[in-house]
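PT: before anyone asks, these are the final sequences, not the draft ones from last week. 255 residues across everything. Please model them as a single complex and drop the result in this thread when it's through.
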Amino acid sequence: MKDLKVFKDKLKKGEAVYGPFMKTTDASFVECAGYSGFDFVILDMEHGPVGFSGLQNLIRGAAVSGVLPIVRTYDSSETAISKALDLGAGGIQVPQIQSVEEAKEVIKAAKYFPKGERGVCRFVRAAKYSSTPRNEYFEAANEALVILQVEGKQVLNKLDGILAVKGLDILFIGPYDLSQSLGVPGQVSHPAVIEAITNITEQAKQAGVVTGVFCDTFESAALWRGAGIQYLSYSVDVGIYTEACTNIVRKLHSN
Ligand code: 3PY
Ligand code: MG
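LR: through. Structure below.
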């Protein structure tokens, strides 16, 4: 997967990668994000309405516009993970990881032998429905990114163990759920949330693991890029569209 190699090289060089969450079920919007130059899109099965048959068209939209499709699974179950990968996701992003054991189970579901026990089928979109030679496919498939989300204060004392899990590519911090668990729901700029994100980032840095975070302002994107976070998820398709519409309506009414 060419895009995946470019993406991983950027991370290795310490560069930043940017991409929005996508709640759309229409591949046109994924293409727009790709043609705009984003590095990745996160196709959201946790908070968006898309199902698996719609998901495959969103992944196709990502392929034609040259952007890496990451799927945020609806949970950490084997089915949620392997179906997304079978459809050709460049990586999976799993929400609400609660323990080291759960992190290990995710790797097991996402990787083929010898790294894991992913259910085997080569008649899937990711294997070009069996056109990809089998050895080539199973090796390439094991390159898909595994991104784990930590977003609750109860998981903070398990971070060392999670960061040591083999096969983890990126530790993603969810500021919104984190803010709720810290007792300030939605206040992602609250000092307690900033402190928690800073500490997680530092701990990951010590462990040599790339971090990611969600931002919905340019200020927070700059803040977290400055702190060394490389995988920056910038806002959400529907939020971006709402903001653009609001600005247009405001300007039209000011004429
Ligand atoms: C969170 O902030 O909780 C996320 O999952 C990313 O938007
Ligand atoms: Mg969350």
